[in-house]
Design goal:
CATH superfamily: STAS domain
Protein name: STAS domain-containing protein
Number of helices: 4
Largest sheet: 4 strands, mixed
Strand content: 15-25%
Helix content: 40-55%
Number of domains: 1
CATH architecture: 2-Layer Sandwich
Radius of gyration: 12 Å
Distance between the termini: 23 Å
Shape: globular
Pfam families: STAS_2
InterPro entries: MlaB-like_STAS, MlaB_ABC_Transporter, STAS_dom, STAS_dom_sf
Order of helices and strands: EEEHEEHEHH
């Protein structure tokens, strides 16, 4: 996981219960700077429910502050994971914001 600037974060290859605490810290710090989050999802090879829940929570927090979460280049794995939990529309909405 790499933060390229105050508002952009590259997600790790594994988005699961083990990576969520560190990712949460990064997202909270980013939200303290700006309510607009840009998340790059191209490297995600494993995505489980805790990681997806964290992204949904971050998007809600951004919206409550008047901003938004933008998902750039979501991997097939990330897209499939959101589809599996019935939330494929989130990927579509978050990706549209980038384009």
């Amino acid at each position: 996981m790499t933060s390229t600037d105050a508002k952009t974060l590259e997600l790790p290859g594994t988005l699961d219960i083990r990576t969520v605490p560190e990712l949460k810290e990064s997202l909270v710090a980013m939200l303290a700077v700006s309510p607009d989050l840009r998340v790059i999802g191209s490297d995600v090879a494993i995505a489980t429910t805790p990681g997806l829940q964290l992204l949904m929570s971050a998007a809600c927090s951004a919206e409550k502050q008047g901003g938004s979460l933008v998902l750039v280049d979501p991997s097939q794995t990330l897209q499939a994971a959101f589809t599996d939990i019935g939330c494929s529309s989130l990927i579509t909405d978050w990706s549209k914001a980038d384009g």
